[in-house]
Each structure stands twice: as structure tokens, then as C-alpha cells.
Amino acid sequence: MKKISIITTLLLASTTVFSFDFTSVIKTVQDVTKQETSTTNTQIKESKALSNSTINSGLKEALKVGVNYGVNELSKKNGYLKNKSVKILLPQNLAKVEGLIRKAGGDKIVGNFILSMNNAATQAAPKTVDIFINAIDKMTLDDAQKVLTGGDDAATQYFKKSTTKSLQKIIKPILLESMQSNNVVSYYDKVNDFYKSNVKELIDNNEIINMAKGFGADSYIPSGSSENLNEYVTQKTIDGLFIMIAKKESEIRKEPLAQTTSILKQVFGSLGN
Fold it and tell me: Do residues 35 and 57 share a domain?
């Protein structure tokens, strides 16, 4: 009986110790879980608690950083010409016969024309800063809320839609001056004249081209360019700026190192929480 009593006592004692330790473990886990949950909730609240004015300021700051980046890059020597993503090429119809013009001896003429367009854009780029900044400052709180959780270039797309027409109107006179100083129109006329004198006859007498005309495929047939050159270069200049702004905006959204100011870290850093 004594042996049974001793065994029972030991079992009870060990059970009590085990119970005590297990309860302690559970309590520790619960405390850690509560702490983590509290931290997560705090982060969520902080993210959601960003004021409208903070969000608005953050987006405007991102756009201004993007504008300064884009303008600075494109204002450098050959800023447009050496950047494949923004380089201004021949207008569409002339682009179709670029190879033929070059082979017919017009390589230098084409090169000079492309260089003149890109130089004009580079020369005009730094004069667009104030135009962009003024447009950014007009962004409303509602606009800011809509683009905060948009795509990588949501703010730039908003900017593009809301300012392109006014930018075209304001930038065109600036660009026309740059085009004049870079003899863009003169080179444009030379390319067209060279095409008409050296390439057009070959195309008109080509059996395959005539067959294409018979099938109503005229839009695919190369020709000289009748495109409005001023509008073409103006739009390409603006497009290049938007491309560079979007690139920087995407970096700010994705890369903490690109969030170089406290407001950028506060607004765009919260998107990653």
C-alpha cells in the first residue's frame, strides 16, 4: 500500500510540475501573439491614418522629384538622342523608307534631321519645369487618394491626362524656337526632297507596291511625310518627359532608397506595410 501511495504521490507531483510548465509556455506564446497583433494593428492604423493633406503632399513630392529627374536627364547633351526609350525618330511615313533613303545616299541627311529634332527637344526640356510644377500644384485631395494605390505610374498617368493639352499649347512656342535654332524644318525638307528625287520613282514602279495598291493596302506603302512637324516634335518631346517621370515614380513606389525625403517615406513606405 505504501508503495502504491508513494507512486501516486510522485505521479501527482510530476503532473503538477508539467501542468505548471505547460501553462507558462501557453502564456508566453499568447503574450507574443498579442504583441505581434498589436504591432500589426498599429502599422495598419498608421497607414490608414495618413491624412489627406499628407497623401496629397507625398504624391506631389513624388511628381516633383520625377519632373526634376526627367528634365535633368533629358537636358544633358544628347539627352534625347542617346536614350533609346525617348529618342525622336523619323515621322511614320518617312520611317518606312528610311532604309531606302540611306542606301540611296541620304544617310547624312537622315542623320542630321534626327539629330536636329532631338537637339531641339533637349534644348526645350529645361524650360518646361515651371509648367509641370504648376500643374502638379493643382492636384486635388480627391485626385491624390485615387492614385495613391494605383499602378507604378498612376500619378504620372493622371498627370498626363490632365495636363497634356495645356502642355502642348505652352511648350509648342518654346519648342518652335528650339527647332528654328537647330534647323529642324530645313533638314525635314531635305529628307522629303531627297525621297522624292531618289526613292519615290523606284517605289512607284515597283511591281509589289503596285500589287499592294490593287489590294487596297495603300496605308502600308512608303511615302514622303506630310505630317505636321511642329506637332510631331512637340508631342514626342512631351512623351519623353512623361516616360522619364514615370520611371522615377515607379522607383519611388518600389525602392526605399528612392524615397529620399521624409514625406516620400511616410506615404510610399506605408504602401509596403
Answer: no
- Write down the pTM of the prediction: 0.69
For cell 498599429, name the residue: 42
Q: Which residues contact 181 (CB under 8 A, 6 or more apart)?
A: 120, 123
Residues 46, 270 contacting (CB under 8 angstroms):
yes
Concatenate the DSSP letters of all residues of 111-159 into one string.
HHHHHHHHHHHHHHGGGGHHHHHHHHHT--HHHHHHHHTS-TTHHHHHH
At residue 228, the 3 state secondary structure works out as coil
Q: What is the DSSP letter of 227?
A: S
- Answer whether 241's CB lies under 8 Å from 179's CB: no
Asked whether residue 27 falls in the same domain as residue 114, the answer is: no
Is 196 found in the same domain as 93? Answer: yes
Are 163 and 108 within one domain?
A: yes
182 and 238 inside one domain: yes
How high is the mean pLDDT in each 10-residue block of the chain (273 residues)?
45 42 45 49 48 81 89 96 96 84 89 95 91 83 78 81 81 90 91 79 50 40 60 92 90 82 78 56
Query: Looking at this protein, which amino acid is placed at residue 53?
Result: S
